[in-house]
Design goal:
heterodimer; A: mainly beta; B: mainly beta; seven-stranded mixed beta sheet; four-stranded antiparallel beta sheet
Chain lengths: ~110, ~120
């Protein structure tokens, strides 16, 4: 059974680079292949990154994803005030036949 | 433009059954999965379940005993039924579409409804 662990918060000043991690609890399965979602205040989630590194059309290039070891990461370069949101990673757990979401990371622009 | 719209009662009494419907406009069911995800106020996302156009379903193991999803292709709708609700089921309920990337071999939620708030009262 997968558990995705995210830091509860992250912050940066405008223009900075912020990185959010998503660690998969089952350390023996290799790098998790996750999707990332952005949820602006009071709105529905929006797909940001799929397959850990792929950016859908329309998503700005300053959002990027990577994975290494048992973790995946989302990076926001050139942080903007409109990036203040909650960010969630998610993966399909083949053993549960279920989607699992990370707990979410709130990004604050200082 | 494809849109999803949730509809529901807003308020449900404890121990009763919650029924929600998601209407798809601008597209058909095609080769997608159709999902329900919920979010209690101030908390994270919880996946409830999904249904394929064939009627095949997967449910969150923690909710499986209380949840049933169905599909009505003639109305372009899919539905969620959750029995024996409690205050813990109070949340915003989203319907969402899952699409598949054949190059990355992965499913992802690419379209979401605006969500409908559900309160369970005692």
């Amino acid at each position: 059974q997968s558990v995705l662990v995210q830091p509860p918060s992250a912050s940066g000043t405008p223009g900075q680079r912020v990185t959010i991690s998503c660690s998969e609890s089952r350390s023996n399965i290799g790098s998790p292949n996750v999707n990332w979602y952005q949820q602006l205040p009071g709105t529905a989630p929006k797909l940001l990154i799929f397959a850990s590194t792929q950016r859908p059309s329309g998503v700005p290039e300053r959002f990027s994803g990577s994975k290494s070891g048992t973790s995946a990461s989302l990076a926001i370069s050139g942080l903007r005030s409109e990036d203040e949101a909650d960010y969630y990673c998610a993966l399909w757990d083949d053993s549960l036949n279920a989607w699992v979401f990370g707990g979410g990371t709130r990004v604050t622009v200082l | 433009q494809v849109q999803l719209q949730e509809s529901g009662p807003g308020l449900v009494k404890s121990s009763e059954t919650l029924s929600l419907t998601c209407t798809i406009s601008g597209d058909s069911f095609r080769n997608y999965y159709w999902d329900w995800v919920r979010q209690p106020a101030g908390k994270g996302l919880e996946w409830i379940g999904r249904i394929y156009v064939s009627g095949s379903t997967n449910y969150n193991p923690s909710l499986k005993s209380r949840v049933t999803m169905s599909i009505d292709t003639s109305k372009n709708q899919f539905s969620l039924r959750m029995t024996s609700v409690t205050a813990a089921d109070t949340a915003v309920y989203y319907c969402a579409r899952e699409d598949y990337s054949s190059t990355s071999w992965i499913w992802f939620f690419d379209l979401w409804g605006r969500g409908t708030p559900i309160t369970v009262s005692s």
